[in-house]
Amino acid sequence: MWYYEKKLQYPVKVRECNPRLAKYLIEQYGGADGELSAALRYLNQRYTIPGKVVGLLNDIGTEEFAHLEMIATMIYKLTKDATPEQLEQAGLAPHYVNHDSALFYHNSAGNPWTAEYIQAKGDPIADIYEDIAAEEKARATYQWIINVSDDPELNDSLKFLREREIVHSQRFREAAQILIEERDKKIFF
Amino acid sequence: MEHTYTKYYYPYISPLDPCKPIIKKSYSTPPNLYLGFQPPNLPQYNTAKEALYKGTLWPALYDNYKKYSLRGDES
Amino acid sequence: MSHTKTMPPEYYELLEQIQAIDFVLVELNLYLDTHPKDYDAIQQYNHFTYESKKLKKEFEKKFGPLMHFGRSYSSYPWNWDDTPWPWQV
């Protein structure tokens, strides 16, 4: 089971009301390489992978939910109290007429989240390599969002999330090594 | 061994390309691509707060991404 | 109910300290998932776990429970939703 803790993993500050940025950030909320996909992908793979890497999938999957909450906080703050006119100018009129300012699991082009985004092959090597690729894709997405964002405080939080993708990729690469090598026969450290 | 975390290449430029060409393109090659299986006892950031604001506990895994730092022609 | 309540600077300072300590714990945890025999890292993990618990006790005394489902104590009346939610502050 999970417990909720009433804190964000990293402080999220937003300089100004900016629904245009929220429109881009929704990619990391309900997009293919977003945090929801990541969390569900890893937690789902836990059941059918060797025990040596279950803990890692469990823990990175859990951290992804904390990232999802950070992204939601950014979107919430960027659009809180924005008028329908402001949302329209940001290209969010189609979102507004369907959801008002509610968050929704779709990507920045408006496509709803789908389980097609998360692969589960049941083959440990295929699945871990999928996870490494997913982390690199999420890292790249953060780069592209930072490039179109002019909010320095928001970019600080986005840089944190990008760095986390690097660390996760590092750990998944180690997990792949653990699966490949007969580490039980070796004494390391 | 020191590694750079950005790599560059020069795409073909046609006289018929409508947008202002980016002569030098770049892409990110962060430290996780080079570290291998992380060795024990790597140096850590001095304080928990510093680690938090870097996004990692270990300087060896830190990659400082700056806005447009991948636009080779602008760096 | 929290619409008139503004959190004092001390809330943000203590929260930031907790975020920092807990971040180190996340990093060490993921590291230990792939390095289960690193004795020093385990010692460091346990040390930060102790620090985290201590800080949270202090935070909760001032600002109410951080966790639900019996992971934090409640005063009277039930004070889980007394302080703003993380996305609101």
From TrEMBL, chain A:
Which positions bind Mn(2+)?
Answer: E35, E64, H67, E135, H168
Which cofactors are named for this entry? Mn(2+); Ca(2+)
Task: Recite the UniProt cofactor note for this protein.
Answer: Binds 2 manganese ions per subunit. Binds 1 Ca(2+) ion per subunit.
Q: Which Pfam families match?
A: Mn_catalase
Which parts of the sequence bind Ca(2+)?
Answer: D59
User: What superkingdom heads the lineage?
Assistant: Bacteria
Q: What molecular function does GO assign, one term? A: metal ion binding
UniProtKB keywords:
Calcium, Manganese, Metal-binding
The family note in this entry says:
Belongs to the manganese catalase family.
Q: Any idea what this protein is called?
A: Manganese catalase family protein
Organism, by scientific name, is Aquibacillus koreensis
Automatic annotation (TrEMBL), chain B:
Q: Please name the InterPro entries in this protein's record.
A: Spore_coat_CotJA
The name of this protein is Spore coat associated protein CotJA
From TrEMBL, chain C:
In this protein, which residues make up the domain named Protein CotJB?
13-88
* InterPro entries associated with the record: CotJB_dom, Spore_coat_assembly_CotJB
Highest rank taxon of the organism: Bacteria
Keyword terms: Capsid protein, Virion
The identity of this protein, by name, is: Spore coat protein CotJB
